[in-house]
Amino acid sequence: MSLISRVPDYISELIPYPPGKPIQEVEREYGVSNSIKLASNECPLGPSPRAVEAINKVKSQLHIYPDGSGFYLKRKLSEKLDIHPENIILGNGSNEILELIARAFINKNDEAVMGDPAFIAYQLIVKSLGGKAVPVPLIDYTHDLKSMAEAVTAKTRVVFVANPNNPTGTVVKKEEMAAFFKAVPDDVLIVMDEAYYEYASTMEDFEDSISYLKALKNLIVLRTFSKAYGLAGLRAGYGIASKDIISTLERVRQPFNVNSLALAGAEAALDDNEHIARGLQVNSDGMLYLTSELKQLGLSYVESFANFLLIDVEMDGKMLSEALMQEGVIVRPMSGYGLTNHIRVTIGLSEENERCIKALGACIKQIEGQR
Fold first, then answer.
1. What are the pLDDT digits (tens) for 117-131?
2. Which one, 64, 138, 142, 296, has the greatest CB density within 10 A?
């Protein structure tokens, strides 16, 4: 028996998650230059100048391990959110906290419920532990919370809800969320993944899950600094839950999981409300422009509460995304989510949005002419 043959089937059968292609890779592969990336839902403004300044100040201390407790970042978060530091866990992006949750709560053959399509990492993480992913189809591109609650069985340990949802950008209604929280048993962990919280927080239909934490002891809310805060390259996120849940996750967290640059940058970013406001305005303006132009192209899209649009291009989305990359425009094909005729486009700066629309129209016309 070989070494690799001893790998469990539930590992060897996994298909690795393919992230959005980086600019350098696309330019090497397609021989293009001056490319723009609208594939990974990053903030086009970049990080706050305050965050950059804070990062520069700690560069000379990189030979020293970071603060494993994340004391100052937790303190800043607790002040901003009016919660106790003991109710916070920090992660190498909120994605790491998803993994900690699965390691702590899911055993082999346990079940986890999630929407379909939703953030693909949910299924991969659960399956990597020998657990069973139970996908529940969306209705009108939105989580069907009633059906998700009904999918819970005696084997269910966790329910994942992305709100706003990735890749659709939709949010669940307040009344549906309240009913869902009541319907899920107390011994099942509810994970509200709010990676795009800042974009949705000002919208009337959005419900902040943190408001339910005092009443629900089986709820954890995840947020990140990778989106609106523009710190995707540093990897920093956090989870908020009861002390019991946090202490459980701390048992499986590795020390020094959040690096010194990320801790300093994230703490400083929380103080720069003006930068966040500018980013949200750029997103709002870009969303209005793109949706207007997509209508002119005759393309339908899903109304989004996040910083991206899911677009039905009425053709093979992978083929179209490859054509766009040849023009130096990187978007995300959605075949991995079962949406073969869709692409996802991040809202960029005004000049990036204009370039994307121009390339999109040209590539669609080119592909249609080849049929």
1. 999 999 999 999 999
2. 142
